[in-house]
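Inputs:
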Amino acid sequence: MNNRLRVLRAERRWSQADLAQRLEVSRQSINAIETGKYDPSLPLAFKLARLFETTIEAIFNDAPELQ
Amino acid sequence: MYCDLSPEVKRRNRREMLRKFWPVYLIYVVATGMFMLIHPAYNSPLAYVLAISLALSCIGMIMTLAVVTTRQRDEFQKQLIIQSMTWGLCGMMSITTTWGMLEVVTDVRHLPILMNFPIFIVIMAAAKVTLFRNNRPTDE
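Outputs:
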């Protein structure tokens, strides 16, 4: 699954550690989500959407990435 | 260990884990040591006491592991811990099954069933270190 987490985080000038602290997860989790190694659970996805004041669909996209 | 939770959360997690783990681990070490040093007579009351305390401490450690894993708030790290436990289980079953087959058809030395737990723990620990190392956050 593709996501815009890195972009959204960069827009707010947050480091991975900042975002991790806001979500009460490890930086390891943020890195794994950003690199596509791990898809978050629905509660964590909602938490992310709420934090970035957007929708889950605006962050995550299950369409295959365009080459 | 390669964990990037806040220091306070890390300390709290470690404290909680140690508080639950150490008493049962201590019983396990003492019982194993006594088994090795005393060699209790076969079928004696001491043999029963040591065997039961060893078994209970193993169960205690497994339960502690389960409780700590269940309460782990970081879902990615929880997934890594579950993966390492799966590796531990698969490794233990592979080794003991192969060894058991060899015991049936060859003169290989008997492997006591009580070795299952240390085999599981060693493989699980190795898998945990490897998985956490492979999933270390790399860049910002």
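Remarks. The radius of gyration of chain A is 11 Å. The longest strand of chain A covers residues 2-3.
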